[in-house]
Design goal:
1 helix; single chain; alpha+beta; 164 residues; globular; 8-stranded antiparallel barrel; 8 strands; 18% helix
């Protein structure tokens, strides 16, 4: 009887060890290096590319402009969560941003709300969530998920470099 309990505990421990390792690996692959402080600064969007989407399929992102209009845009992200992006054509948008990391297997994300004069961010209940491809404090890759067909997801991918 003693051996049965001993072997049962060993098997249970081994199962727990293997299941916890696989879950941790997945979480680490997405969150490694990401933290709110790494987003703070001034960023330039160098490129906009597509994954599993035909170029030109997405007509407008952030309810603002075509994806390519964001190439060379400048994004200012302050520690307070306030920010702004400016397109090359002179169009600017105030935003309130945050780092979203639910820790439940869902991808961590950069999210923001458009803020207009007189608005308070807490009163705005719609916004945009971009999956974090990578961030190291000097470069950042963000991906907007786009539904393709009835069951596939493609991405508009924005690559940034920090300028300040």
């Amino acid at each position: 009887m003693k051996n049965l309990v001993k072997y049962s505990l060993i098997i249970a421990f081994a199962g727990l060890l293997f299941s916890s390792c696989s879950t941790t690996q997945k979480a680490v692959s997405y969150t490694a290096g990401a933290s709110r402080s790494k987003f703070v600064g001034t960023w330039m969007c160098n490129t906009v590319t597509y994954q599993d989407i035909v170029t030109g399929t997405v007509q407008k992102v952030f309810d603002q402009a075509p994806p390519q209009a964001f190439v060379n845009s400048t994004w200012i992200l302050t520690n307070s969560g306030n920010g702004q992006y400016s397109l090359v054509n002179g169009m600017s948008q105030s935003i309130y941003w945050s780092y979203y990391n639910p820790g439940n297997g869902e991808d961590p994300a950069f999210q923001f709300k458009k803020v207009y004069q007189g608005d308070k961010a807490k009163d705005i209940d719609s916004g945009y969530r971009l999956v974090i491809g990578s961030i190291d404090g000097n470069t950042m890759v963000l991906k907007t998920p786009v539904k393709v067909g009835s069951s596939k997801i493609g991405y508009v991918i924005y690559t940034f470099t920090k300028t300040k």
